[in-house]
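FIELD: query
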Amino acid sequence: MLSIFSALRRSALVLLLLVILSVVLSSCQSMPAGFSVSAPLRPAERLQILSDQSFTTAQGQQKVEQEIFDQAFALIAQAQQLVVVDMFLFNRFAGEDSYRPLAQQLTDSLIAAKQRQPGMPVVMITDPFNTLYGGVRAPELQQLRAAGVEVVMTDVDQLPPSNPAWSGIWRLCCSYLGNSTEGGWLPNPVGEGKVTLRTYLHLANFRANHRKTLIVDYADGWRGLVTSANPHDASSRHHNSAIVFSGPAALDLLQTERAVALLSGHAAAVDWPQAPEATASVGLPGVQVLTEGAIERSLLELLNSAQRGDRLDMEMFYLASRPVIAALIAAQRRGVEVRAILDANRDAFGREKNGIPNRQAAWDLHQHGIAVRWCGTDGEQCHRKWVRLERRDGTTEVISGSANFTRRNLHDLNLETSVRLITQADNSEISAMRAGFERAWNNSDGGEHSLPYSAFADHSYWRYGLYRFMEASGLSTF
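FIELD: result
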């Protein structure tokens, strides 16, 4: 009997050592080549800054204003040579009461482009979450494939683990099991029906291609769009932003998508057009494509360069990164006027969340004198992810795109795309962006765009400690 117990102990010890080794190896996995890109600063030709928003008017009516996907569909409709789309959420999950069927609208737009130009490559890059990692059928993707649109499912298993504690175990026990749309017995976490245990096991890795981009040929060149918006029905009332530009920077954006396509086995991406060599100097406005960890490097450089008399405004769905929060506080101490409109992290497609991480991050900011207001949402999410620095010298710098200011989004874990825009403060697009923020901050039109800090202030030490643990460990969905 003792020998049996001894053998069991040895087996358990060996298994524990294997798990520890696997977790350590997972933690050491780095971002593949071709990612974490800081492209050259390029001329921002035909610049547009777009906005989607929902708000309550002075008369108490709900109003929705949208520009982003209308512009995306128009760009796809005029393409003649190539269409490349990379979108994180592309589905109708939890979308029964949606404002707009964006997933089907994008599907129809891409199919129409392929039918209009049968020889033109039309490519949809997306994340395996849209099939729940093989656990459900994705009707939009099936329609695209049937119409000849090339669907590229991102190979997220090649990305560093956002949740290394689980991903090490996953590598040993479950990564080879695959998945099936049949035989599920667990509730679908985002809709009706059942899914397999394998869906939940895969989901817990928290790896994602979180990008939202579009590149098309346009007139005599190329045009790119970088946004925070998803073609996801249940997200169709969300507040979002986008930057659209033409010129060589659009080919830089295409280069970053080539890396995703090649990583995921789409060999035809080799033939996509290449970006030209950068010129020595660039006038204003200028735009720079940033991906993954390069976004944080550029963001911290921007925050650390802000000086007394500058103004820094931001809107953010998730704010949790400790280096970013520290840089915001340091800027405030140097005399920079810092204002933040944050999502209250309450609404999640019909479910109510506990406010982590924004209410805890907002407490940090509030304690150091930074002005915070909450986006005035009514079931939707304030899903924008941008920061704008207005310098005393008359220039303005913006970083905007898919990346939340969190560990997962900034530390070379998720795939992300944002852009850095530098321009004169009196640029008409910047002026409109500034006016939109002022309207939201002050509720100047009589509507309810934002709420005071006290509306969602949370000074619970327990939840603050939980936020810090989740951010540091990766055991979180933000």
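FIELD: remark
The first strand starts at residue 42 and ends at 43.
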